[in-house]
């Protein structure tokens, strides 16, 4: 496999504060990697290190087989798109797209050719003679992407490019970025706190917390088999349901209060008996029914039925006051106060060790 980007033992500290800790990432040629995590986790900081906007404390950064650890941003062969559009207000769209190329003393014919290509790909041809003030937010972001595109680089870095847009525009531009990657097949590293963007765009997601990568895997792997409690809780909306209990009977069952759940068929395989463990269940991996099944169901009471359009979220209260959510078909309406039983799909569940918080 040819690597487009390699991050080797990267560490970044500001004084005594360690921001990025011993990071190692290999990004394949043409891969779309998303750095995902809450505010302050270090994702934008890592992107700025790749771009050469921050000097690292230790480690190495390689791009296209070249050690660029101490190279200037202009020498790294990258194009960067920021959260703020950073367009020159006094210049037209054409002027914004050509500015960097003119400074590099590129021939006018080549500049015109690159602008025409970017305008076609991003569908901004009719906007070339407008100034940024006459553009919508989505159009400005397209121009910002175009400015990176005309540089004809191998690696694109996106720093939360859609966060300033409304929900509809975010959805539309997300599709445009997906199309752009499919058409160009360039390597892209994309920073976001939005898990929908991550799950829909990425070939692989790096979930970050406290300057450490918690899990680096394909979207479905992260969603279905989160490596630890943090990843499980961060990915998914609404969040995974967590039941605090114990694995009993030599690991053959999970005990939650007075409820026993059979663990036969758990995808993780054999489970050790643990006095404390956490069972994680996605809302779509539970089924509401009116009768109990020994070892397969959890008794609960309906609190709220929340229609979401394509489906509904039913919020319930289980033993010990535990709040749980279940996805149901939108045509099935549930009344508050109804006593029900939640059937568990144990093959799709996750079990975590309470002390280490790692997936069992």
Automatic annotation (TrEMBL):
Position of the signal peptide: none
Listed SUPFAM superfamilies: MOP-like (SSF50331), P-loop containing nucleoside triphosphate hydrolases (SSF52540)
GO cellular component term of the entry, any: ATP-binding cassette (ABC) transporter complex, substrate-binding subunit-containing
Keywords: ATP-binding, Nucleotide-binding, Transport
InterPro entries membership: AAA+_ATPase, ABC_transporter-like_ATP-bd, ABC_transporter-like_CS, ABC_transpr_MalK-like, ABC_transpr_MalK/UgpC-like, Mo/tungstate-bd_C_term_dom, NA-bd_OB-fold, P-loop_NTPase
Every ABC transporter domain range: 5-235
Transmembrane segments: none
Gene Ontology molecular function terms on file: ABC-type transporter activity; ATP binding; ATP hydrolysis activity
Family: Belongs to the ABC transporter superfamily.
Official protein name in the record: ABC transporter permease
């Amino acid at each position: 496999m040819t690597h487009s980007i390699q991050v080797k033992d990267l560490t970044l500290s500001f004084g005594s504060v360690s921001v990025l800790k011993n990071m190692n990432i290999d990004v394949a040629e043409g891969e779309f990697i998303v750095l995902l995590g809450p505010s302050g986790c270090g994702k934008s900081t890592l992107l700025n290190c790749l771009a050469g906007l921050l000097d690292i404390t230790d480690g190495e950064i390689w791009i296209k087989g070249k050690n660029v650890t101490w190279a200037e941003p202009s020498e790294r062969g990258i194009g960067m798109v920021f959260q703020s559009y950073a367009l020159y207000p006094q210049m037209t769209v054409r002027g914004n797209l050509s500015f960097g190329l003119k400074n590099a003393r590129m021939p006018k014919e080549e500049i015109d050719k690159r602008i025409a290509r970017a305008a076609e790909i991003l569908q901004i041809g009719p906007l070339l003679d407008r100034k940024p003030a006459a553009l919508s937010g989505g159009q400005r972001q397209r121009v910002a992407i175009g400015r990176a595109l005309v540089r004809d680089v191998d690696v694109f870095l996106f720093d939360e490019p859609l966060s300033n847009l409304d929900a509809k525009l975010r959805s539309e531009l997300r599709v445009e970025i997906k199309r752009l990657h499919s058409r160009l097949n360039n390597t892209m590293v994309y920073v976001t706190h939005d898990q929908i963007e991550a799950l829909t765009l990425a070939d692989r997601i790096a979930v970050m917390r406290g300057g450490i990568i918690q899990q680096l895997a394909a979207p479905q792997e992260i969603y279905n088999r989160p490596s630890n409690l943090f990843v499980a809780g961060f990915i998914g909306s609404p969040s995974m349901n967590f039941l605090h209990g114990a694995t009993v009977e030599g690991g053959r069952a999970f005990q939650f209060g007075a409820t026993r759940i059979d663990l036969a068929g758990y995808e993780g395989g054999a489970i050790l008996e643990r006095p404390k463990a956490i069972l994680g269940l996605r809302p779509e991996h539970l089924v509401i029914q009116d009768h109990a099944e020994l070892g397969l169901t959890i008794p609960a009471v309906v609190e709220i039925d929340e229609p979401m359009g394509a489906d509904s979220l039913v919020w319930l209260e289980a033993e010990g006051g535990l709040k749980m959510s279940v996805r149901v078909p939108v045509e099935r309406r549930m009344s508050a106060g109804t006593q029900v039983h939640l059937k568990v799909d144990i093959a799709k569940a996750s079990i975590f060790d309470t002390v280490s918080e790692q997936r069992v």
